[in-house]
Amino acid sequence: MNFNVEGFINRGVHISFKPLNAYVVKVLINDGKGFQKSFSVIHEPLYENGGEVWNCYLKDNEIIVTWRDNFVVRFKVLNFDETHMELLQYIDRDDRIYGLGEKYARLNRRFKRFHIWNIDQPVHLPSGDPMYVSIPFYIVANSKRSVGVFIDYSGYIYIDTGVKYSDGVFLNVRSNSFVMYLIMGNGIHEILRSYSELTGKPFMPPKWAIGYHQSRYSYMSQDEVLYIANEFRNRGIPCDAIYLDIHHMDGFKIFTWDFKNFPLPEKLINALHSINMKLVTIIDIGVKALDGYEVFDNFNKIDGFLKTPNNELFLGAVWPGLCAFPDFLRSDVRNLWSSYIAKWIKQGVDGIWLDMNEPSIFLMLDPLKDIIERLPSIISGNENVGLSIISEISKISTAMVNKNVGYVRINALHKNDDGKIIHHDEVHNAYSLLENLATYEGFKKAYEDKRAFILSRSGFAGVQRFAAIWTGDNQADWGHMEISIPQLLSLSLSGIPFVGADVGGFSDDTDPELLVRWHQLGAFYPFYRNHSDINARRHEPWIFGEPFETIIKNAIKLRYKLLPYIYKLFIDAHRTGLPIMRALSIEFPSDENCYDIDDEFMLGESLLIAPILAPGIRARAVYLPEVKWFDYWSREILNPGWNLVKAPLEIIPIFIRENTAILTTDPKENAYEPWDPIRIEAFITKKIKTRIYDDDGETLKYQRGEYFETELEIIRDNNEIIVNTEILNKNYKPAFKNIELHILNGSNIENIVINGKKHSFTIHEKTAITKFTLE
Ligand code: MIG
Fold first, then answer.
1. Contact 194, 183 (CB under 8 A)
2. For residues 729 and 698, is the Cβ–Cβ distance under 8 A?
3. Catalytic residue numbers, as ranges
4. Radius of gyration of the chain (CA)
5. DSSP state of 253
6. Residue 355 Cα, ligand 1 centroid: separation in angstroms?
7. CB–CB of 667/570 below 8 Å?
8. How far apart are CA 472 and CA 632, in angstroms?
9. pTM over 0.90
């Protein structure tokens, strides 16, 4: 076997291979002039062994990698110079491509062109690429093998998945050297596990962060915030957090309060906490460039902002007017930022919402000056002056970039900790990642032992370590609700499990049916938040009255009912990097019918969700893979294949997979009140292995072993159920005392034995129910 090989191909491209373990091989590529170490997101160094499974070599300008003798990856180096490298990866006719983070595209990303470059993209359309989050990681998969490709480069990358070459992935990396990781494994699960070892495991959120959240751009005063929060309690609609958008600030200056409308922030926070409601406030990335504004002055004092090539402050217009941008590449800048975050949350603010962090700059000042200087020539002899000015200006804004443009350069300079000047071009996509890191550190500074909650719009590979991601400014549109599924599935397939889209739609006006259907779908998003734009009608759950309010309330309650199951998925994601929301194809890799399905999805391994995605629809076709499924509403058992399932307005079709169980509880008004009892709802024909997990839901004590975990094995032998439990860890005393076992297909059960003891049970509507406790 060959490893640690290196050599030259294509008249000067230098390649070296370094197998890191049995699943990951590192490929270093440069133009022959030496390797230039750039910013890297690689989190945990992988141990170096297991190279025996790899065979890497160079042949005819090609990079060839085999794994366990059979799986082959082939790349050809097409072109290169000191500014870029072009590669072609050969793929098979039946390959699909998954991943690439947040895109307006379906689950299978093949036959498209994408820009890897973070942009403020409120135009959610196929032509509106790129978007806020770009992840240069994709998985090529067919029924025989899957391979993950991760390019550890934070500058611009162009990826063409089948337009230029229909049997290839064409990559154009705008650098003369970069590192690529090839990840192999038996199936996508294994690949995602290695990817998360490379880029970092997802953070574990506090329990309240996985409840329902209410937001609006903006709740304009503390009275309004309290009114909304109290409405939830008065109406008995569960809710865990309320959000303050930019109007809580004084002139949109970050880390300030507008004391006119929010005169007593501390009182507001206490009042919210007294009704078990958390507060999340927005923080934009730009700092108003204003002498005398403390935040600006303090970053300036450490020379902590991005500079122009002339070594002046790099300035751009955002909400507060002209802003400067912290240089998060530097640890002293991150340190100052995290101190501000710490001070801010010490007031009692529970979570931080990071917006505009691509960074979004409406107009960049230097290029604007340049346009103004060139105006005479732009105008002279021009028939449509307005249009040509607008077209010039569109090039100096980092918002709303069209796919044909794809890339807007921010001509600014960073300095790293070694004092080296680094152009923003090289680290653009990592800018928000580093802001997230600094914000996360702020939480640690404020409360050493408390879990952080950050919601971020922009991100890069590795952002899962710090934040949840939402998909930005969607619209109150059925199509946008539908596309949210492949968007979130793809983020999940890119290592980021804690994801959601604005429920109800951000901009434009929602309607009752859309709001209902979106709440039903959102109940299964890992991140569940209702948010709306300043110009859109408001859409809190009660806004359209009955019957919609009750239906929405029930959707939210369904979420709270499922919290023990969802929380277990979060700890699994935290431990292993596995997604919470999963494409059917990763749960059923050998069922080819699933490959492109993205209007259904799995939540964990047990639940299949088939949302209603158009108005007036009261039934839908649902594809059920491979096994039998238990219809949660009709309580019937369905066969695999295509089924027509009823879906009146009150119902979102959901199904429990054969030989799995979900964990439920009685919904409370918030997510962290004790879950008691815990119900194991099992659809069993043979055998189930499952776990119950709990911890205090807010501290990091679980990292020191203070959690509760039990493994359960449930075996069915015709009319008999045998349960064996094994306590794996009980260093935390869970709140629940009672466990209920519900055998959903239990009409003929005659005997239930738990840990060797016979238990009495009742049968209610085909479900056999018994109670037990764990000692
Ligand atoms: O350009 O802060 O995506 O959620 O409400 C608009 C105002 C700026 C964009 C975010 C949106 C937020 C809004 N922000």
1. yes
2. no
3. 355, 358, 473
4. 27
5. -
6. 7
7. no
8. 32
9. yes
The amino acid that residue 212 corresponds to is Y
Tokens 């197998």 sit at which residue? 19
What's the rounded Cα separation, in Å, for the pair 771 and 742?
Answer: 9
The string of pLDDT tens digits covering residues 689-737 is 999 999 999 999 999 999 999 999 999 999 999 999 999 999 999 989 8
Nearest residue to 498 (alpha-carbon basis) of 553, 451, 444: 451
- The count of other CB atoms within 10 Å of the CB of residue 675 is 26
- Angle at which helix 548-561 crosses helix 563-576, to 10 degrees, equals 50
Q: What is the mean pLDDT of residues 203-225?
A: 98
Measured torsion, CA atoms of residues 286, 290, 293, 294, in degrees rounded to the nearest 10: 70
Distance 713 CA to ligand 1 centre (A): 47
- What count of Cα atoms within 13 Å lies in the side-chain half-sphere of residue 455? 32
Got the DSSP string for 106-142?
-SS-TT-EEEE---B----STTS-S-SBEEEEEEEE-
Cis peptide before 507 (omega within 30 of 0): no
pLDDT band of residue 381 (cuts 50, 70, 90) is confident
- Name which residue sits closest to atom 8 of ligand 1, judged by CA: 356
Pocket of ligand 1 (CB under 6 A): 217, 245-246, 282, 355, 457, 472-473, 506, 531
Distance of CA 673 to the CA centre of its chain: 26
Q: How remote is the CA of residue 13 from the centroid of ligand 1, in Å?
A: 44
Structure tokens of 589? 């890799």
For residue 190, what is the enclosing H or E element? helix 188-199
CA of 130 to the centre of ligand 1 (A): 17
Residue 1: per-residue pLDDT: 44
Question: How far is Cα 532 from Cα 77, in angstroms, rounded to an integer?
Answer: 47
DSSP state for residue 594 in the 8-state scheme: G
Percent of the chain with pLDDT over 90: 87
* Sheet order of strands, 499-500 included: 499-500, 468-470, 454-456, 351-355, 278-284, 241-244, 212-214, 528-530
Q: Which atom of ligand 1 is nearest to the CA of 472?
A: 3
For ligand 1, what atom is nearest to the CA of residue 246? 2
Residue 2 has a pLDDT of 47
Atom of ligand 1 nearest to the CA of 360: 1
Q: What is the atom index within ligand 1 of the atom nearest the CA of 355?
A: 10
Using the 8-state DSSP alphabet, how is residue 203 labeled?
P
- Select from 473, 508, 527 the residue to mutate for testing ligand 1; criterion: most ligand atoms less than 8 Å from CB: 473
> In this structure, which residue's CA is closest to atom 1 in ligand 1?
356
Reported in sequence order, the residue ranges of 629-707 that DSSP labels E, i.e. its strands, are 629-631, 637-638, 641-646, 654-657, 660-664, 678-683, 687-694
Nearest CA to ligand 1 atom 5: 217
Helix (H) or strand (E) holding 16: strand 13-19
The answer to whether the beta carbons of residues 51 and 65 sit under 8 Å apart is: no
DSSP 8-state assignment for residue 420: -
The token duo for 642 is 């295509």
Partnered with residue 134 across adjacent β-strands are 101
Pocket probe for ligand 1: among 119, 132, 217, 508, the residue whose CB has the most ligand atoms within 8 Å is 217
pLDDT tier at 33, thresholds 50, 70, 90:
confident
State the distance from the centre of ligand 1 to the C-alpha of 62, rounded, in angstroms.
Answer: 46
Q: How far is CA 623 from CA 403, 609, 640, 645, 760, in A?
A: 33, 10, 7, 10, 37
Mean pLDDT, range 566-576, rounded to an integer: 98
